Amino acid sequence: MSISAPPDSAAAVDLAAPPDLDVQLGLFRTATRIARFDEKYRSLMTSGAIGGMYYSPRGQEFAAASVAAHLRRDDYVVTTYRGLHDQIAKGLPLRELWAEYLGKAAGTCAGKGGPMHVTAPEYGLMVTTGVVGSGLPIANGLGLSAQLRGTDQVTVVNFGDGASNIGAFHESLNLASIWRLPVIFVCQNNRYAEYTPLREGTSVDRIAQRAAGYSMPGVTVDGNNPIELYNAAGAAIERARSGGGPTLLEAMTFRFCGHIMGDQQVYMPAEELRAAIAADPLVRFRAQLAAHVGEDELAAVERAAAAEVADAWEFARTAELPATSELTTDVYAATAQDGATT
Fold first, then answer.
1. Angstrom distance (rounded) from CA 209 to CA 108
2. Phi and psi (nearest 5°) for 197?
């Protein structure tokens, strides 16, 4: 873990201090639900039962679960096309999420967004964007809205290491700092920007180092250590909620399944991938918890997650497709005069 912060940053936090056991079980439960959804979805794609584009977050479960554990329903989250873990961690019901992924009318966007554009404002999931880095300026807009309305809502924007190299990243951090916006910039650094290793496309060893140029705290933590990330995220979210301004939080993690479904990962050293999978953070954290809560309770969590995913899949599988009338719904706005559209 490394921290670079301006003088007015929050006091140092003990990142290793374990939260209550109930919190730890909650992190395990969320991460397990994410992993089971992902595994089921990939198995269906592999078998040919479903098709489409899919960007697996397997291996990055805690990068979402440990941050979202601090968020209220009315807080905002912006994520990317590799966003299943962020969507589930924010509280989206699995039935509606499955339906959206399959393009069904019962989905969060009536089936018109699909996996790359899931949106559910009623749960605080404001945008899933398919354009690298484009969520950062949107997050500033959400943060500015909360600031102008005088609420204590915060916005978390998730992005990968590659997004830190585009102009919108630097513009967004600069503006958020100037206006002290309640935004937490969470870089889920999985070491690869699509097919390019971090070391070949980024000028710094740690993305959080770039925070110093924008007078905000920059924190790098082990994103596969749920407790360390939970504590770091809690400090950053509390700072934003209390008016202290933004933080750049870098969670070092690893993606197990490549950039996109079907990626053969030939650009990645085989031993690196094997080592990452062998150190699966979900398996490691389960072993940690087993010493405190016992096998029966953890197995019950896993059975419940599997049953919930199976139920959601069956619900989505048999749900109706959107009606043809949906082609123009949410496209044209009704005028105040006689209900005509413009």
1. 37
2. -60, 150
